[in-house]
UniProtKB/TrEMBL annotation:
Its cofactor is pyridoxal 5'-phosphate. Pfam families: Aminotran_5. SUPFAM superfamilies: PLP-dependent transferases. The keyword Ribosomal protein does not apply. The keyword Disulfide bond does not apply. The lineage of its organism: Bacteria, Bacillati, Bacillota, Bacilli, Bacillales. Residues 4-364 form the Aminotransferase class V domain. Its EC number is 2.8.1.7. This is cysteine desulfurase. Keywords: Iron, Iron-sulfur, Metal-binding, Pyridoxal phosphate, Transferase. GO terms for molecular function: cysteine desulfurase activity; iron-sulfur cluster binding; metal ion binding. Belongs to the class-V pyridoxal-phosphate-dependent aminotransferase family. NifS/IscS subfamily. It catalyses: (sulfur carrier)-H + L-cysteine = (sulfur carrier)-SH + L-alanine. It comes from Bacillus weihaiensis.
Amino acid sequence: MKRIYLDHAATSPMHPEVAEKMLVLMKESFGNPSSIHSFGRDARRILDESRRSLAKSIGAKPSELIFTSGGTEADNLAVIGTAFANKTLGNHIITTEIEHHAVLHACKFLEKNGFNVTYLPVDKSGYISVEQVKSNLTDQTILVSVMYGNNEVGTIQPIKEIGEVLKDHQAYFHTDAVQAYGIERLHVGELGVDLLTASSHKINGPKGVGFLYVRSGISLQPSLYGGEQELKRRAGTENVPGIYGFSLAASLSIKEPSQKQEFYQQCKDIMISVFKEQHLDYDVNSPSQGLAHVLNVYFPNTHIESLLVNLDISGIAASSGSACTAGSVDPSHVLVSMFGKDSDRLTSSVRFSFGYGTTLEDVRYAANEISKIVKRVTA
């Protein structure tokens, strides 16, 4: 049976070149980068080179990157760390209803600790407006956290414009760019962000490693205590092989972004054209100008669990949305915010996402199989 992976927004296969070079490194360079002997110095050199490469990919200084165990830790450190370190300036935070749970749950934690959080609703395409941010700012606002590109429907928020609004305000600006990094061109100076999150396993790197960009001069309260790694901002021996793999994956991923986006758009166009040819009843939840690799589709009169099981039996991997809640019966909080809690779309929408290894032939084949399944489960 042919197996086709269309769930790259959940995680991506490791690039063979990354895996091969990481294996060599794990065998030959096992030193602790905090050690002063030759083994440690070798590890430190690799760590520093990787940090420089990753910082350059977003227009940052190497010292502005904190390596973490992934996007979740980076988001937590950005939200909770910034809030606690700056609570003398205010206790108000602004975010959106469709953030990743790593941000939303961090905000819920802060609410239990005396902070006030404003959750901005989105329109039917998943957008917030700059005016929403502006009208909710107060002299107590210390942090605004808005996802760059949504992981479930692909909506890209007006980050640069929000950055302009916050330029003369005390609030720090964080963006979760986990889903956009490696797809969109990101430059922290041009975007006007103070903090930015990225993760390795979304761009064909290893799992368990990410980074948080923190603009120079910003104070964070650490979430881990122990050693003095990462300029005393994140204790724990650095995951040198993972960080090295992350830097390799990033170098490969950020090459020719426009060509990559054009290819993913072709994937979307082929899938939609097949659905039309097969006379399917469907609607696209993703905005036309969203992340190129994410396509969220509503199939009326289907049920997501039945649909996903049948897709899996046919060898096609897709998702109902966020991988972190894939085992939950709760409806997608993103679709709830977009369409309301009573919408049929909550239980009948599927996310397809493309990436390394995807071919146009696979997309066409999968789209035809999807069409058969949708017709069968709605018959």
